[in-house]
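Posting this for the archive.
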Amino acid sequence: MPRFWSQPLIRQLFIAILLLLVPLLSATFWAGAQAYRERVEDLRDEATVGASTTSAYLTQYLGNLDVMATTLSLHPAVQTLDGAAASDLFKRTLPMQPALLNVDLVTKEGRHIAHAAGSPDDLPAAANWATPVLTSGERIVTPLHVDKDSGVQYVLIGYPVHGEANEIIGALGFRVRLTTVQAVFEQLPLPKGSVVTVTDQYGTILARTVHPEQYIGRVTPTQRPVDQIPPFEELVGVDGVRRMYANAFVPRGLWVVSVGLPLEMARAQATAQWSRSFAMLLIALVGWSIFALMMSRRFVRSVKSLEAAAVRIASGDLRRLGTTQMTSLELAQLHDSFDRMVQRLHETREALDRQMAEERQIQEELQSLQRQVIRQERLAAVGLLVSGVAHEINNPLQAILGFAELLQMQHNLPDTVKADLRLIQKESARACGIIRNLALFARQQPGQAAGVRFADVITSVAELRQRRLESEDIELVVEDRSTHHVMAVFTELQQVVLNFVVNAEQAILNSGRLPGRITVRSRNEGERVLLEVEDTGPGVPPEDEAKLFQPFFTTKPVGQGTGLGLSVSYGIIDSMGGQMGYRRAPAGGAIFYFELPAANPEPA
């Protein structure tokens, strides 16, 4: 020690700096190692929370499927093994669970009788899942399957269906695509590079948030029995990244949920902390003056950044502030508060914009409905007027028709006069038919459904539009090959067919494709009767086909359509148990069609 004091001052300072540097460096390295261990523990806790959350979600989802299966198995259609009714029930149930690919019903003999989607040839073999269910009477979860046609990967959950005497009468199968469920996993607030994996009891990967297309279906290298998997562990994943994994068991599916957080984060943060500590050490050794100067400059720069952000926000620019390093915790908190404020202001403005847009849309729809009500009132008045005029005109026409028939009974009339009388009788009868159809269409009373032939409906519509179409250089062609009757209200079918013909007429006229042709066809399709109207117009643009039957949608010029004709027609046909649709004609025009079940179908 005396020797130290005898050294020159500069050397003493140098030795003191060296002596001080050793414990400081040791403390710095110790702090980095301690930060690494603490971050590893944080990663473990964070992974444990994520695994527990994911496991709880899967458990809840599988519980919901179990409740749905119990509800479906108690439905009368399933209890009676009614294939058609059960298929319809499954089709209506399928949209309630987006992850469900299909719902199958198998009898205790192993025969498929109902499914929600696809064809019977696409269904998995009953022996793969239904036989174990029927044998054990317990719920089962199969390993991962791959659809042979579409390549979709799914697991199949089978449930026994018990009858009234608690005997097993069949099996209910749910095909679940876990890639749809894994979208929820991707929303977990996990750091970048994290991965959520779901494996079954055989070690097969069922779902994975990172590169699922590459790893789903593969067996994990660390395949172990479920009871030997620890709650957390450090492992190198199948992608070669070392992570801290937390594992949680899903008893309903015999699955294991693993949430892995990359350990590189702990190393990076520890290295960053060590670097900061070492930099601070060097700065302290160089001198507080330089450190104070640098801190003051950084402080001013941070304040300037916040000031610029405040000016930008005041001008209406609500973009996020982005990541900016601050010199103190208070400034960092202030920066985060600014960022949260900007985000909330942006969300509030978007909400107001959406609300205003919705209000505008509601106002437009209200105005459209008001115009429609006015139009309906006018149509009702016109219908009343048409009914009165038809009644008044019909009486003179009946007199003309009767006198024409009486005059033809005279034997001393010349042939030319008889020919003229026959023409008068024919035209008078045609005029009576037109007036009768006008009066029938004007009343538009639903009435009771009765047996109706498409030929009668087509004839009535042709009588109403034939002369108008001829004057517009449009040919009306009728190809009636239907023989069955349908249970319907005549005036409602007349309204639908007339709407098709008028739409076709306006499409041809608006496109200028004259001379034009409208073809009305009808034919039997097994136990159903089909009617279609084809025109030589331009057809419907592909982008508008999905909106054809929506209310208030129209492609006609302003003032020529309300957008309700096809939607009302669709409702009429749907209420009769039929189907309506559209397809493009081979020549480029449009074909609108509908089909109804036959009232008395002939034997096949």
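The first strand starts at residue 100 and ends at 107. The chain has a mean pLDDT of 79.
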